[in-house]
Predict the 3D structure of the following.
Amino acid sequence: WPEPLIYELGGEGRRGAILPYESELEELEALIGGSSRLLPENMVRRELLLPELSEVEVVRHYTRLSQMAYGVDLGPVPLGSCTMKYNPKISEEISRDPRVRLLHPLQDEETVQGILEILYHLEKWLAEITGMERCSLVPPAGAAGELAGALMIRKYHIDRGEQRDEMLVPDSAHGTNPASAAMAGFRVVRIPTGPHGTVDIEALRAALSPRTAGLMLTNPNTLGIFEDKILEIADIVHEAGGLLYYDGANLNAIMGLVRPGDMGFDIVHLNLHKTFAAPHGGGGPGAGPVCAKGELVDYLPRPLIEYDGRKYYWDYRCEKCIGRIRAYYGNIIPLLKAYIYIAMMSGEGLREAAIQSVINTNYFIALMRGVKGYELPYDPSRPRKHELVISAKPLARETGVTAEDVAKALLDRGLHAPTIYFPLIVDEALMIEFTESETREYIEEYARALREIAETAYRDPKLVKKAPQNTSVKRVDNVYANRPTSVTPTYRVYKRRLSGEKLVL
Amino acid sequence: WPEPLIYELGGEGRRGAILPYESELEELEALIGGSSRLLPENMVRRELLLPELSEVEVVRHYTRLSQMAYGVDLGPVPLGSCTMKYNPKISEEISRDPRVRLLHPLQDEETVQGILEILYHLEKWLAEITGMERCSLVPPAGAAGELAGALMIRKYHIDRGEQRDEMLVPDSAHGTNPASAAMAGFRVVRIPTGPHGTVDIEALRAALSPRTAGLMLTNPNTLGIFEDKILEIADIVHEAGGLLYYDGANLNAIMGLVRPGDMGFDIVHLNLHKTFAAPHGGGGPGAGPVCAKGELVDYLPRPLIEYDGRKYYWDYRCEKCIGRIRAYYGNIIPLLKAYIYIAMMSGEGLREAAIQSVINTNYFIALMRGVKGYELPYDPSRPRKHELVISAKPLARETGVTAEDVAKALLDRGLHAPTIYFPLIVDEALMIEFTESETREYIEEYARALREIAETAYRDPKLVKKAPQNTSVKRVDNVYANRPTSVTPTYRVYKRRLSGEKLVL
Amino acid sequence: MAHPWIPAANERDRRIMLERIGVKDPIELYSDVPKKLMLSEPPRVGLGKPLSEEEVRTHVDKLLARNRVFRDPPPFIGGTVCPHYVPAVVDAIISRAEFYTAYTPYQPEINQGLLQALFEYQSLMADLLEMDVVNASMYDMSTALAEAILMSLRVTHKHRVLVPASMNPEHYEVVKTWVSGKNVEIVRIPVERETGRLNIERLEEELRKGDVAAVYVENPSFLGVIEDRVNEINEIVHQSGALLIVGVDVTSLGLMRAPGSYGADIVVAEGQPLGLGLNYGGPYLGIFAVRWDRKLVRQMPGRLVGMTRTVDGERAFTLILQTREQHIRREKATSNITTNEALMAIAAVVYTSLLGRKGFERLSREILVRSNYLAMKLRSIGLKAPVYPKARIYKNVPVAFPGDYGVVHRKLLEKGIMGGLQLAKYPLISDVFDVELSRVALFCATEVHSKKHIDMLVDAIHEAIEG
Amino acid sequence: MAHPWIPAANERDRRIMLERIGVKDPIELYSDVPKKLMLSEPPRVGLGKPLSEEEVRTHVDKLLARNRVFRDPPPFIGGTVCPHYVPAVVDAIISRAEFYTAYTPYQPEINQGLLQALFEYQSLMADLLEMDVVNASMYDMSTALAEAILMSLRVTHKHRVLVPASMNPEHYEVVKTWVSGKNVEIVRIPVERETGRLNIERLEEELRKGDVAAVYVENPSFLGVIEDRVNEINEIVHQSGALLIVGVDVTSLGLMRAPGSYGADIVVAEGQPLGLGLNYGGPYLGIFAVRWDRKLVRQMPGRLVGMTRTVDGERAFTLILQTREQHIRREKATSNITTNEALMAIAAVVYTSLLGRKGFERLSREILVRSNYLAMKLRSIGLKAPVYPKARIYKNVPVAFPGDYGVVHRKLLEKGIMGGLQLAKYPLISDVFDVELSRVALFCATEVHSKKHIDMLVDAIHEAIEG
């Protein structure tokens, strides 16, 4: 049953909520001598176009919409680079506590010692896991942590009187890396991937110059391959006067086993909504703490959480720091969930999770060996870590069935599609990350499905191209969605078009 | 996607929960000198057949099963006599409070004054709404309240030295009435319904005798008709030495407007999970307080909640009381939800809800007037109250399409079926109760659907008989389900049959 | 008007609807109600005016602040209901709106999920108990037992029921009430003073008197005593033609033999330990099982979900054997129960699935060891724990104090410890101990009582006694 | 091994999987990691050992007991974030597992529900703001504003941005940080000492200097002042060729003109009041809207959901204009944002749907009246409230005290009242008042502050000052 838009529900005069003390309003208005003069005449609103629904109707509408969404609690979401692991229910339960929810960010610190203590320990743990000295918990998402990191690098060089405006980024990197570097004012220099799926060291050497500010890297990289020359890379970059930035998106494969700090990284950001089991929320909120060591600690965004032996407090002192990256202290709820996760896992648990995520990846690779239509680019014999990227290039070449078609065909079998067409360096890429949360049976089913889809493609490619057929809606028309004459970002635009306006973007 | 049974999931060696202090066990075993001698040898279990799943798998399984269930939050459930109104989310939120959830029933009373105060006021309110003096909150469901009421009547007569072993029950009554009376040791005497859909007073008079213990009645009755001769009925029964018992199932139509106590009833039970918006839970838990006035107060099951001006406490004193109807104090969580509901509605709100439920019923009747295939038995011009019963007898006679077929065809349109084949006095009965929670649009849609189903039936009855086609499963085979050779109440029985045993019930 | 929970209570909808109905004022729809019955104003209920959500939050918050929660350590109050671990997943699942806002699944086609969950509940309980048939829930153990006894009367047409004197006195009172409309005598069988087990000689004696519909035994008992002569009991009870009703602590079944293995005809249990929480007494869950026997199943109370198939032959679930129930059989029904504890049954099946085989074994072991550790510690400070010197105990420890336990209890409370159950509450059972009831308390230790908690309790008791 | 969250971490699964992979020890899968990088033991994080659920519950419970919640009365801390009513329905919906455990809906075919909810969020915000395009969320208002300013630089290729001196100092700092990689000057425009409104003469002066990418105005301002010269501002800003960025308090829009009606090119707002709760600072929600203008929309940061159709012509929803985003455009992207605040956007749309037209109007009126009542009461005890004598205020009241407000604040705290925001925290804005900053505090009164709460506050302040 298709669900109407909220605008198509309800009816004039209905209400879904009563405000707390409505019955007092008349009395208060009388006490202040009427409310009409409180608003300047020319600021009075004439029309408000909002739907009118009862509570019952609102609950049903959004409950039904929720049933038309898909998350980890319904089944696996093996999107490469996204680390969609299970979100423990205990974290949801605890983080609903009014003693967190009802705290105002600007309450006196003596009244929030409990949450501050949690944040204090969380910072210590994240520093320990990454091999860094300090972390700022403020960035509300990985990209914000990256921006903070890039700005730290920028300011570090400026403070040293150096003009370094080039940021090196491998061609396999997440799009956020170049985007963040650009937002921080850097020119982005792309470093190619070598034949083994790792950074091409010669190309890296060639790119280095006195203008090099640093290198942004994720390790294991987006191919799921560990940059085995990382120590050499760190040396080269440091020698050239650059800094090393670690994108924490892929930490899940190595947490508890290897530390970015030990590899030579100066700055690290983490995605607590990936690696540390805070839920992704259909897109957010996340939490993207940024950590640093050595001189870079001074550059971390403020405030930092401190303890003076008696009480916990926010330290706003900022001599070299880049300033503030978001108001207040970041996304507290995901931070609390990460605290709970680490407390329940402890060091051994994190290590166990990492190892299982790697076993899951390599088990899948073993099952896919020799399946016609797919290939594992870059050194297929080398173990992958948290994820892998297979290419449907042979399939596309031989049957015309593309990675996108394969993705839609997976949906048809009730399986979530992998990340597709990323990283850009692999043609017809299918980027798959099971995480440690998935069962052996599921990995087997996924491999079987991919094999069967390929078999069907070789037999009858059109059949595959028609997918999905079993999903709640058929394949969505992306061209129509983005065409300047039909692009519809809000109902307001839709209504304006309906009323005859020609709206072209 | 059909969902496997829990037994078909998981795998050997998996676990979905860690108990609180597992790491201590070895130490404790050592301290008590080993645990092997703690259990008598012949009591040691040899085999435990439980599935083994991770937390992730359990969450997904039951989340998916929940999506295959249907409740008021997805859409209306207009089951007659069930009063499936909206369950406010605020009640769910508040009743999750650990200061309720973590209370042991046998904690010292001084440590539970908060919840006792809530229960104290709830009792007062329920007494006021019903026009009774006192209520026992203990019965965990309406039927338990009924049993308590029937036992009270029984004991009352015995204490007076009278031998009264006959309980009068109208033929339109809920099945629980005769069942409860029988459990309390009464012989049930059926009173027929007169031509206006109310108790046949002459038949009632004829049934009364020195053996009459009482009359169990619901008003408005299951036809949705108010027993307008109720005062006369009460007089007659009382004069004959009987008592009047009020089944609260249908209170929704009159709460805040008319009180059973004023009608002459001596005992009342309520269904808080119907009338007072506690959720039905897919079958339970409910709460079925039983209230009484006059001499009957002494017979209420114990304990009662009391206040001595300083503290709240449970009063277990029992001189004439029937004893205890359930361990502890009943189902506290639904009781708390009823408290919240009444506090938020107050007297005016209850009245408003009652009136709207009656408007909804009569609006539907107005829409159904003249629709071919259905008729409104018993005085169609008379207003109905919380519910109505229409008969599909003309349809069945003329097309062969029965009330059950109509019900399944409604499911096919995404509409929940009404209660069917009840009350027994109406052929091809469709018993519909919208409650005040439903919208005008929905009532119109329901009427339209019934009309269209009838139209289809007159055109092509087979089409209707094939329904449902759009539900998650097709029509269920009830004969197979109940056949002695195939009836399967547990997986254990299924496995035993699989292994070759001939299990016949 | 315009209430969030009453969509059509607004001017426009009202007008349209009343016009169609053909009345001006909705009160006309009450014209058949005798005038004198109509209240002139709304009843004075609630708190003086309708509260908004925020107001009711603040109001209830203030009230609940007057409750005192014992969390660290949890209460040591023993008996049928003890504090147990509630996995967060259980609440997450039973908070799914599709489950908790559903009605009894009379329409199987749109409620397969609910039906399957209940079928799985029945099935897992059946495997735990080694019984073939489990119903979809009773209110709690007390009423499940009452129904079991009523059922035994229907099946055997006899009039005496034997129960252990040591049973939960609240359950005993409930049973007495429920059978009070029937011609039946409930006879309490004493327990052995040395072992706390049922006195088998006295049992046989009562059986010899005849007319026994059922014998009820508990294992472990309300007082925590493990009954090991189950084979003997099975034999003598069935020789007499009575039914054997076993009340079991489900948490023990990870290590202890299931009642199905020693001849139980009916099993009842309290489902509260299976992830339901304490809830100040409810909702709980009455587990009710019977042997695979036509007569027993047909006389069983309560709803049953069965596995069947659709007209297309696909697996499906539906309510079965409904002809036993009151909405069809009316006064001939096996029980009046309709609303049951379905949501709690779902909680129990989620809990049991989470633990699984290994977790359930572990649960039993944790409780066995912790309660025996508690007993040992209490003995080490000179108390009689358990009161029955040769008893083997599980979960509960009945303890004899040198003086009035009430005094000790209050001292514990001052230290933030909720101590044992003061058995003085229940004069009925003064005959199961040689010591005065005021000196006896029932303590429990479960998987939520850490060593630290237990040591803390025993130290505090020691201090209270010495001090 | 056998961890609830790691299904295959058990002997059997491990064995099967490792055999197939062809390794004995899973550590072999790390053979490409330089030996010296491998930690010899797990990091020392957490609490000494893995905690069970029950242990972590008890542990966190103890910690949270050290927080102090102000509920009755709620905090009076003013500014961008104030306490507001959170309907229970909002939490019920965003606790739906399908929503909160979903990823960004890149696969529209299986996530129509999530996409439609986000489209509805965009649409309701568009109607509230009278702007045509709203994105699917930014982190919060501070970063939304920073992105708006970065966007204005991209669109205009100019280098100066004018902001009100009275803006939230935390937002100002965030903006400074975010633009620090760009060649841009942020100029603070003073406010009038009589009215608290933007000093238009100074604004014109700065505009005349040229190279202005954007002018940012707030309405009502951080300090609660209603800006009524919006038409003049619209005119002079656009005459200069700069973009007009408006920061708005969404709660005011039930009564106050929408920024789309006075020429805003970009609107930013804090979504926190829309049912999100306080959360000690986050998660919140950055609302971000632009006019229907190709250049603006193409340069807009963040994700957009659009209404479209399936290949069969049915209505459907999907992510649109993704070519602006970093996963496609990389360093040319309009922003680096990927993870946003989708779940908070759903909270906001549920909240706004619940209130609806009438409720939203009511919300604005409640806040307008209550904050003006608070101001009146404060004046009645001799305080300057608001500091700007001719200001018209909404929600926030900047108040000047005769002495150091900090002293008053501590006295309020002793009485269980969380008073106003001590502006002494923010030396930056000492230039917006004539009085010393230490004497000024910002109070708010919203729909959750009852008359009793406000009276209680004012009485307590009175006592603190007098006493």
Notes: Residues 141 and 288 of chain B are 4 Å apart (CA to CA). Chain B has a mean pLDDT of 96. Chain B has 18 helices and twelve strands. The first helix of chain B runs from residue 25 to 31.
